[in-house]
Write a structure and sequence with these properties.
This protein is α/β, with parallel strands linked by helices and 286 residues long. The protein folds into two domains: 71 residues; 197 residues, Vaccinia Virus protein VP39 (Rossmann fold), CATH 3.40.50. Helices cover 39% and strands 20% of the residues. The chain contains eleven helices and nine strands. The strands form two sheets. A seven-stranded mixed β-sheet has the order 5-4-3-6-7-9-8, sandwiched between helices. The relative contact order is 0.11. The structure holds S-adenosylmethionine. The site of S-adenosylmethionine has 23 residues, from helix 6, strand 4 and helix 8.
Length: 286
């Protein structure tokens, strides 16, 4: 069959088993099999499709096991780069691209060509640190990650993009490392994090695709703000005087974060996504 027919068949099957993202999933899966970027798939539609067995396996994984397409193909894009996604490690999300872009803008504005030190908490695939390291040759990052598979995933992607020499990874729990262990480094110019921020009480309600990912990457404690509040309370001592934090969160957490951070003496700004929802918190010490 032709690629175009395979695409139509795929979409019909996924739609039939109520996969909301059926169009996108089929494009990404078929493009992955053919070794082309998804955006270029329309140019391949007249080609012969040689992977019917793989397509059947895809239906099984996607429809019956509800494994997200990112995990079936084992890679996903974050800005202009493609990142390997290891099993159960959180795959890059749209809001995280906004976090990286926000951090890039702030770093460009705040620091010149002198050495810059950044800290990332919860590196996952490494999509934040690796994008920042690629952008700024004068940047060195320290990453803290509790999940050993995610640590390997970050290292893999750092090597893929040739920035592993400027990334120090600590496998461990930020609640134990900050600030004590991190004081051994230079003071940081900034802290970036897309921490686990799903409210513990909402974890059961998540779709099976999200539940497939490691709970460690999702569970943000009561109200989902455990990490943000910890950074505001304990991580200021490891930041330089004019240092800042850039953190991702859920829109409904905005008010709670505003009250907490302000009470702790932080000056804050929220950045909204395309839909006008606040997703990124920038915090500076007053
Ligand atoms: C929401 S994911 C973000 C991953 C990646 N930075 C991204 O944006 O795609 C949060 C990450 O924090 C890690 N994590 C969870 N609890 C942690 C802790 N106590 N200390 C350090 N890392 C932790 C998880 O394993 C997971 O990789």
């Amino acid at each position: 069959m032709k690629v175009k027919t395979a695409l139509e068949l795929c979409k019909e099957r996924l739609k039939g088993c109520k996969i909301e993202t059926y169009e996108r999933d089929c494009i990404f899966f078929i493009a992955h099999l053919m070794g082309v970027h998804p955006s270029l798939l329309p140019l391949e539609e007249k080609r012969e499709f040689e992977y019917p067995r793989e397509l059947e396996e895809f239906f099984k994984k996607r429809c019956e096991e509800r494994i997200p397409v990112q995990h079936i193909i084992g890679e996903w894009d974050c800005l202009e780069r493609t990142f390997k996604v290891f099993p159960k490690v959180l795959s890059p999300r749209g809001a995280t691209e906004l976090l990286v872009e926000t951090a890039i803008g702030l770093i460009e504005k705040s620091f010149g060509k002198n050495p810059i030190w950044g800290l990332e908490v919860g590196t996952g695939t490494g999509c934040i640190s690796v994008n920042l390291l690629c952008q700024f040759p004068n940047l060195r990052m320290v990453g803290v990650e509790i999940d050993p598979i995610a640590v390997k995933n970050t290292i893999h992607n750092a090597k893929l993009y040739g920035v592993e020499d400027r990334l120090t990874l600590l496998e461990g729990d930020i609640f134990k490392l900050c600030p004590k262990e991190l004081k051994k480094f230079e003071k940081f110019h900034f802290l970036v994090s897309n921490p686990p921020y799903i409210a513990e009480e909402d974890l059961d309600k998540l779709p099976p695709e999200v539940k497939y990912e490691n709970t460690l990457a999702l569970n943000g404690g009561k109200g989902g703000t455990k990490f943000h509040k910890f950074f505001a309370s304990h991580c200021d001592r490891i930041l330089k005087e004019d240092g800042f934090m850039v953190l991702e969160f859920e829109p409904f957490q905005r008010e709670e974060l505003e009250i907490f951070f302000t009470a702790k003496g932080w000056q804050i700004v929220f950045v909204e996504d395309f839909a006008g929802n606040p997703r990124i918190l920038i915090a500076k010490k007053c």
